[in-house]
From TrEMBL:
InterPro entries: ATP-grasp_RimK-type (IPR013651), PreATP-grasp_dom_sf (IPR016185). This is ATP-grasp fold RimK-type domain-containing protein. GO terms for biological process: SOS response. Residues 102-249 form the ATP-grasp fold RimK-type domain. GO terms for cellular component: cytoplasm. It holds the Pfam family RimK. GO terms for molecular function: ribosomal S6-glutamic acid ligase activity. The lineage of its organism: Bacteria, Bacillati, Chloroflexota, Ktedonobacteria, Ktedonobacterales.
């Protein structure tokens, strides 16, 4: 099979996703790497359809997403799909979309400019303030009072979320979904002291939540940041194609899933073509043509009686 890996500039010197491409190549599949920031990509010939699937680990508003959408437009499967990526990349949209579909997400407000943070309702304090594009962990702040909020210094070119802080165990749990497998990794929270980062057992609640997030957003490879709270698990972030840090056997697991997904799509296309070939040739219902202005004079034309 042939796969196109779209490599954004940010990931040129990082292992993910090229370790996945290398694994597929070792298994005998053909890999092409497309670097959209240094290449021109033809959109009007058949070159987009030369692949069985496209794979993208994107950055926010990166050029790779446009190429991914173009591939989808001509019927080539993509991992992840572009709509899912766009839904989770804007954290404000992800929060609204997920909450509306029953995901356990804390009360969240969108703030178009830092000066508007003072209007966050007092009753939802303490709040976590973070960029709505989710680009920097250093810009995540726990604010306990309106006075602390007034003293907060933030980038005025960035939009923010103000999310109600829910009491929790003091560390994050990353649920990583590598296609079919779900892994849980305990990780240090940017709001608390560091903890030993290690894999923990995936319980039924974690499995159900990870599955539901994938169904809601249509993601194949993704991560869900959750907190263990007295009210149960709460979702505080969703990421498409994360680093999967700490996940054992992640390379083989992700490569296997991409391969199987491409095979499924290929078989589906082949079945559709076969089904069309088996159909009878389409024929016109009436072989005689009549000029429109002469229709009412033609005695052989059947007329519909309107009641």
């Amino acid at each position: 099979m042939r796969f196109c890996f779209i490599l954004e500039e940010k990931y040129v010197h990082k292992p993910m996703p090229m370790v996945i491409a290398d694994q597929l190549e070792q298994w005998g599949h053909e890999i092409e790497v497309l670097q959209p920031y240094v290449a021109v990509t033809s959109l009007t010939d058949l070159s987009l359809t030369d692949y069985d699937a496209y794979v993208l680990k994107t950055v926010s508003d990166g050029p790779g997403l446009t190429i991914l959408e173009a591939a989808e437009a001509v019927g080539i499967p993509t991992i992840n799909n572009s709509r899912a990526i766009r839904l989770v990349r804007d954290k404000a949209v992800a929060a609204a979309y997920g909450y509306a579909r029953g995901l356990p997400i804390p009360l969240t407000y969108f703030v178009g400019h830092p000066r508007a943070l003072g209007k966050v309702p007092h009753e939802i304090y303490p709040v976590v303030v973070k960029p709505s594009n989710g680009t920097s962990l250093q810009d995540i702040h726990l604010v306990r009072t309106p006075e602390e909020m007034a003293a907060l210094s933030l980038d005025e070119t960035t939009h923010y979320l103000a999310m109600h802080y829910v009491e929790n165990t003091g560390f994050d749990i990353k649920l990583y979904v590598t296609g079919q497998e779900v892994h849980a990794i305990a990780k240090s929270s940017p709001l608390h002291d560091s903890v030993q980062e290690e894999e923990v057992p995936v319980n039924r609640e974690m499995l159900k939540l990870a599955r539901r997030v994938g169904q809601v957003f249509g993601l194949d490879l993704y991560g869900v940041d959750v907190l263990e709270t007295p009210q149960g698990l709460m979702v505080v972030d969703i990421n498409d194609f994360p680093s999967f840090y700490g996940v054992p056997r992640k390379v083989a697991s992700i490569a296997e899933y991409i391969l199987h997904a491409a095979y499924r799509c290929r078989r589906s296309r082949e079945r559709k073509v076969l089904s069309i070939q088996k159909q009878k040739v389409l024929r016109r219902q009436e072989s005689k043509l009549v000029a429109a202005q002469l229709m009412r004079y033609n005695p052989s034309v059947r007329r519909v009686q309107m009641n």
